[in-house]
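Continuing from the previous page...

OK, I double-checked the sequence for EAL domain-containing protein against my notes and this is the correct one:
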Amino acid sequence: AKAKGKCRYEIFNSLMYAQVAGQLQLETDLRRGLEQGEFVVHYQPIISLFTNRMVGFEALVRWNHPERGLVPPDRFIPIAEETGLLVPLDWWVLNQACGQMRRWQSQFPASQKMVMSVNLSGKQFWQPDCLEQIEGVLHKTGLPRSNLKLEVTEGTLIDNDMPTSRLLSQIRALGMGLSIDDFGTGYSSLSYLHRFPFNTLKIDRSFISMQFSGESKIVEAIIVLAHNLGMNVIAEGVETSKHKQRLRELGCEQAQGYLFSPPVDAVSATELFDSQFAA
Ligand code: C2E
Ligand code: CA
Ligand code: CA
Ligand code: CA
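Thanks. Re-ran it with the corrected sequence; updated structure tokens here:
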């Protein structure tokens, strides 16, 4: 038994070692990746459930790792956050997304109303010059404010709500859009909805897939609540036409999900523009 115990201890130890080593390696890689331009932004169309046309995109970052291939954000964002690399990465994503949207606007003049949604992390939000940085990116890329929408989660707001509240009001007053992301997960506090000036609520995809195992009442209630508070609703993770059908019946305005398109690179997204705006 003793031998077995020791063996287990050693396995545990080497697993831990591998984990720590892996983490350190990832951290080094991340730094290098940022310097060498290994990150790319993908774009997922957001569709109007009334017209079935694209009304915007969400920018989603990916890491094109030389050995590991395309790494999804869930794998590197937590480490990027711990090491302070997420903030520069997020500003880079905002720059890319606004610049790309601006180029699409000149290439497809009929797309002037399309909106680019970008995720803002908590750390970014707490930077004292956050608003100046956003304005700087808009100025530099030439994208009008009304074509940018920022997505924040409830987790971002929970820390310390006074400065955020001011920042959120300023963002709205300047004419940018504001979404509460992943609604219904995490620290869901209904008071956020009237305390902060969101104009869009994004229902987390866990509710959309749950919908058809008998929980459609939750989705229905969220949509009614959002509408009563003057917000539009985007359903995330719409994968089947049954989902789409039901959401449309419930009055949900917009949707995003594999049914329409996964997130795609800028070249493929340009093809989506081509087909929507073909003469
Ligand atoms: P999110 O903001 O909730 O983004 C939506 C996620 O759902 C994306 O995952 C997207 O690929 C995925 N998705 C879209 N449609 C479907 C569907 O029909 N079914 C399923 N199963 N999934 C779908 P992704 O790109 O892996 O991003 C994961 C999370 O990483 C994002 O969740 C967001 O919180 C974070 N993230 C992504 N890019 C950025 C970024 O540039 N900055 C920050 N701070 N966070 C980011
Ligand atoms: Ca998001
Ligand atoms: Ca989301
Ligand atoms: Ca999510």
